[in-house]
Amino acid sequence: MPWHQRLPLTLTLTLVALLHVAGAVFLALTLLRWLPAWQAAGLATATSLPSLIWALLRIVAPAQSLFRALAGTVSSYRDGDYSFSLSWQGRGTLRELVNAHNELGETLRAQRQSLVQRELLLDTMVQNTPVAMLLVDPNGRIVHANLAARRTFGGGRRLEGQEFAALLASAPPSMIDAFAAGGDCMFSVGDGDAEDIYHLSRRRFRLNARHHELILLREMTSDLRRQEVQTWKKVIRVISHELNNSLAPIASLAHSGRELLRRGQLERLPEALTTIEERARHLEGFIRGYARFAKLPAPRRDPVQLATFVDQLCSQIPFALEGTVDLAAIAHFDAAQVEQALMNLLRNAHESGSAPDAVRLALRRTTDGWRIDVLDRGPGMNEAVLDNALLPFYSTKRNGTGLGLALAREIAEAHGGRIALLNRPEGGLCVSLLLPAG
Length: 438
Prior knowledge:
alpha+beta; five-stranded mixed β-sheet; histidine kinase; Beta-Lactamase; transmembrane helix; phosphorelay response regulator activity
């Protein structure tokens, strides 16, 4: 390596300049001895200046090449090409600049590779999901469609660039109605054994400062049918259990009553008939509960004066009211259905082992509706029971039907609300019925 490349650039330039100046001074002094003053000065300058310029250009040339290389790699980075690196054998500030530039390139290459891998993974997941996914731009044209969407809407063909409205026009009427309704919903296509059930979800968001819509369409036929089979199996088990528990004693007591009648022991006959009546009424109530759950009509949201509603409810099943109810407060719900739901909740509270005076009802206004809490001081529920308590036909009671909480949930959701269960810190359970304002 030449000696001037091992020194810092500034020091090298300074030394070379001093050497050339010293040479020029020496040449001028020598010429002054032989030539007139003006001729000697001109000759010395003309002789040393080209040499000085040539030396300076030679020393600066490597730095100029480095600067051109830096400008080129920066342009490549701007274009997304991070495959370049630089080599500089010198030291000092330029060496630090080159090292920092190469480290930047390595970092950008690693980030670019990681980003490409994530994009490939995301694209693989999107393409292979069974959910049909469509991204529609503000003009109604499809920007992206995965494989499931191509099968659902285009027979396997690419959909990008097509108008979504034109594709939807050839869809089944039930699907067109579901999209026209807006929002999330479930709908079915076909009928009988060929019926398919779908869940539609639509989300709007901004992409590149423009509004886009993401459409998700999932076929749920197989999942729902598996769940339906499991539900029916459970229904059959519960009904069979209840029928056996009632019919077996009825048959036995009927046989005993006939024997008592044949023997003339009529004094014991009323007891047998009373037991038969009790079991028959229990079975009747059991079947009525199932019928009510299966045939729950759409709620009629009429204006209800809450003070009157609470008084009427208290006349049918006892409870203590927490706080007071505004006499002028009006809510809109189906009074008969909500009353049935609350009676189920209050009956459960009394059957929890709580003291009768510890069963309470609290009613309060929320920002978007009404909240009715049924509180008790029973043992509460463990995590497993809390997870399953709202499922139809799930019960921890020996003679329970598993319909009380499920029916309350159906009524709440039919009103656009929900039901929630929470163990109280001091012991007991809080069941909240949340109803919207409208």
